[in-house]
Amino acid sequence: MGIPFIDLKTQYARIQEQVNRNIQNVLEHGQYIMGPEIREFEAKAAAFAGTKHALSCGSGTDALVLALMALGIGPGDAVLTTPFTFMATAETIALVGAVPVFVDIDPATYNMDSDKLAAALAGLKASRPDLTPKAVMPVDLFGLACDYDRILDIAKSNGLKVIVDGAQSFGAEYNGTKTAALGDVACTSFFPAKPLGCYGDGGACFTDSDEIQALMVSLRVHGQGTDKYENVRIGMNGRMDTIQAAVLLPKLEIFPEEIRLRNEVAARYAEGLKNSGLVLPVVPEGCVSVWAQYSVLAGSGEERTAIQARLKEAGVPTAIYYPKPLHLQTAFANLGHKPGDMPVSEAVGERIFSLPMSPYLAEADQQTICAALCG
Ligand SMILES: Cc1ncc(COP(=O)(O)O)c(C=O)c1O
What we know:
CATH topology of the largest domain: Aspartate Aminotransferase, domain 2
Shape: globular
Bound molecules: pyridoxal-5'-phosphate
CATH superfamily of the largest domain: Type I PLP-dependent aspartate aminotransferase-like (Major domain)
Number of strands: 12
Strand content: 5-15%
Oligomer: single chain
């Protein structure tokens, strides 16, 4: 058995009884759509995040679409975000008819460079008077909070809404607050490989606003009004399956402990790789990462290829998040970007790779990984 990149089996062995019992309960009560586990999970997730409301939905992608729609973002609007992220971030902005405007990343944290946000906003206002800047969508990449003091401040002084793409960061903290409690709406994903994952697709939106919550509740079920067959706006089918909520409930219980274990694994990497010559991840003061990925930088693209081959040989899986930033993706060719437009994202994309990460990564396996990297 090789070292798993993400170890879901060990976790399942730990909570098998509760998960199986919960799934069995759903099979017996038969409320597969919006069953009681949905409400129970939403209440517990909101309590965990420290928000007034949590709205479960079908995926992290659905969560972003629901948030954008609830904030009234659509054609003619611009949303500032990062190009160094998963497709869904900018895709959802385009999906609602708005234009994603990319802001390059900070070379140390790989998150949106808050210094470049104000400049990008000024540039946007000057070059695209046809667009109304409506929101910022920062992404807590790899489970690490963005520079929220600055981002929230710039957003506030420019009348922009903030949608946190926390798909990778559920549980992460910024100055003692969960990032799910920041911005107007924070969105997350419960894709199986995420720090808190279900056994299929799932996601959630978090907000303190009754008004936004009410809109998202309606949008999640085809824009329904007070009655099931009264539709007051265009919405979608964005519900989470009851079975996924049933799976998430026991996982949420052990999640605080798992976050602690993830941080222990990250600390062991930091110690074991300090002489590896790789650039290791940084965690700014006041942040607690949930380590969705432990990502390091090789000296160059060629060095990365060689290291990945060496690790493969030693039975160590690796992955690259993300080899091609979004501004260079064919899907966004209409935005007219060219190589060199987002130099930090492009350079990091050439050198970055991620190592196995899970709360249950065995110390012996980690030693194997570190030895292969330091050799
Ligand atoms: C940064 C980011 N945003 C959005 C998503 C979309 O989440 P989902 O796959 O649950 O739709 C992901 C998931 O991979 C992600 O990593």
